[in-house]
């Protein structure tokens, strides 16, 4: 669906459109609804009363108003309403307008009096834009619907920012939803190189350069595939002296069979999403290029496939990482942490002041927190708090989990410096993975395990099944733009 959201300074009843949308909150017409009702001789209030319309969140009632229509849109109860309510309302609103067949509509900026014009405009526009997403690239006859939505008395800058962020989230969704035979490591690198058009610096290393630079842990994972790896670096530099240098690292396994520790078929069905961390990081760089924060932002993606062949790495292999530390492989399906170890070390050596890494890393985190919440691990309390607060502002759910030092002994190998899993025990799998990553930098590090919320097999409040673009909104908020 092609949605255009525009800001307008006038009231709903002053903007000519075939459909005018006003809110019903706590069972009562909003102030703008009352103005539209007065202009139409009480048509809205009569229908509201006659049909006993209570206005639960997303509930609608279409009312004829002469040559146009009014749509009463429920915002639910006054108690417990939040900006997340507005995001969901935006998505539901677009779905309902589209269902009714309108191509243009004007809606009031719901709850602007409660949250402020800027915040309400942003949340409503973002929800609408995220809710309108669809991925029909490989359909023979995809639906192509257009809608122009005006937000009355809204904040223009807030709507514009929502457009940039939603476009970035949907860019990440597109990457995750691509089939793995199309989105190989080389193709992901080409998508990253296209960001140069936005003024970003992009560098891509091929397999020869990766080996020559000593990224042995990463290359060990990649060596089994006929599709060679690509190490992707994207840099944004602000005008003037940056406030700090922030590195973003995203897991870029474009398909994960599990290697010789082969996954069952059911677990492999969604493994095209194992590059969701990379998608979020590259999408954030797209937003960064447009929003222009006053800090330097660098993105790193170690893109690879984890496949089986005569050249694939094996259980029992010992790999030498860029840091110099050696790693004994006890499970080839714990491949993401091996690629991320080298990417994190490289980000550290390039002068990052802090590193935020996103990865669909462990099923253990999904077991702990479910499909809606990401696990947050940090070796630095301040940075961890920054990321958690950014997630709250962005409407994404994360929960802090401990990097318990007493568990570090589980990573000690008898033949190498480390082992990539803690052996036969299934306890604390997500914590162990976070501890492994923390071995490869002394800089402030946040590891977000997004294995749960990065991909959904069912439609959700802000979009359809598939990639969710999780993490983009958190990172944009962290950048303070």
UniProtKB/TrEMBL annotation:
Keyword annotations from UniProtKB, A to Z: Aminopeptidase, Cytoplasm, Hydrolase, Manganese, Metal-binding, Protease
One GO MF term: metalloaminopeptidase activity
Matches recorded under InterPro entries: Leucine_aapep/pepB (IPR011356), Macro_dom-like (IPR043472), Peptidase_M17_C (IPR000819), Peptidase_M17_leu_NH2_pept (IPR023042), Peptidase_M17_N (IPR008283)
Gene3D superfamilies according to UniProt: Leucine Aminopeptidase, subunit E, domain 1, Zn peptidases
Cofactor comment text: Binds 2 manganese ions per subunit.
Alphabetical list of Pfam families matching this protein: Peptidase_M17, Peptidase_M17_N
Requisite cofactors: Mn(2+)
Gene Ontology biological-process entries: proteolysis
Bilayer-crossing regions: none
Any Gene Ontology CC annotation: cytoplasm
Keyword check for Manganese: yes
Ranges of residues in domain Cytosol aminopeptidase: 331-338
Annotated residues for binding of Mn(2+) 2: 251, 256, 274, 335
Localization, UniProt: Cytoplasm
Superkingdom, taxonomy of origin: Bacteria
UniProt binding sites for Mn(2+) 1: 256, 333, 335
Active site: 263, 337
EC number(s) recorded for this UniProt protein: 3.4.11.1, 3.4.11.10
Reaction catalysed by this enzyme: Release of an N-terminal amino acid, preferentially leucine, but not glutamic or aspartic acids; Release of an N-terminal amino acid, Xaa-|-Yaa-, in which Xaa is preferably Leu, but may be other amino acids including Pro although not Arg or Lys, and Yaa may be Pro. Amino acid amides and methyl esters are also readily hydrolyzed, but rates on arylamides are exceedingly low
Claim: Protease is one of the keywords in the record: yes
HAMAP family found in the cross-reference section: Cytosol_peptidase_M17 (MF_00181)
Entry's family note: Belongs to the peptidase M17 family.
Chain's role: Presumably involved in the processing and regular turnover of intracellular proteins. Catalyzes the removal of unsubstituted N-terminal amino acids from various peptides.
Entry protein name: Probable cytosol aminopeptidase
Native source organism of the sequence: Meiothermus granaticius NBRC 107808
